[in-house]
Write a structure and sequence with these properties.
Blueprint: E1 2-9, H1 15-28, E2 32-39, H2 50-65, E3 71-80, H3 84-96, E4 101-106, H4 114-119, E5 122-124, H5 135-152
Parallel strand pairs: 1-2, 1-4, 3-4, 3-5
Helix pairs in contact: 1-5, 3-5
């Protein structure tokens, strides 16, 4: 059974997002061992400079680096877009490559540090569209669940 780790900067605030994450986490229990690690967001002023943002991303990157294991997928806007079927194929290939775990990394609303992106085995983008940062975790969990359903021949993916 694949170990799936989601490393994210920041905590979910809205109950409906927490509820959705709990539902997909429960569903994923039959397909993988899921671990969600929430790391503190670096505190920035209201109008941060580029240097302040880079410092924050570097500090967050150091915290993320300590949590990484296995195949690393960095969620970032400049990453590759995959269909649900292609993501499921990737999830199916990871154990075959000799790795028993995959780490998905979701950065802060300012993104991820360059060090984390360069460490990643895959840079993945959800879409060219912009979504609320906190929604990313729900969307990722849903796509991971969908991927496992596709691999198992389930009826969830139509």
């Amino acid at each position: 059974m694949l170990n799936v780790k989601i490393i994210t900067i920041g905590k979910l605030k809205e109950k409906y997002l927490k509820d959705a994450c709990c539902e997909y986490s429960k569903r994923l229990g039959r397909f993988c061992r899921l671990e969600i690690t929430e790391l503190d967001e670096y505190r920035l002023p209201d109008a941060p400079s580029k240097a302040e943002i880079e410092k924050a991303l570097d500090a967050e990157g150091e915290a993320i680096k300590k949590q990484l294991s296995g195949y690393i997928i960095a969620m970032c806007i400049e990453g590759k877009q995959l269909s649900s079927v292609k993501l499921s194929e990737k999830l199916g290939q990871i154990p075959l490559s000799g790795k028993s775990s995959v780490s998905f990394v979701i950065g802060s609303s300012f993104g991820l540090s360059a060090k984390i992106k360069s460490t990643a085995d895959l840079k993945l983008s959800m879409s060219e569209m912009t979504f609320p940062h906190q929604l990313a975790r729900v969307m990722l969990l849903e796509q991971i669940y969908r991927g496992f359903q596709i691999l198992s021949g389930g009826k969830y993916h139509k």
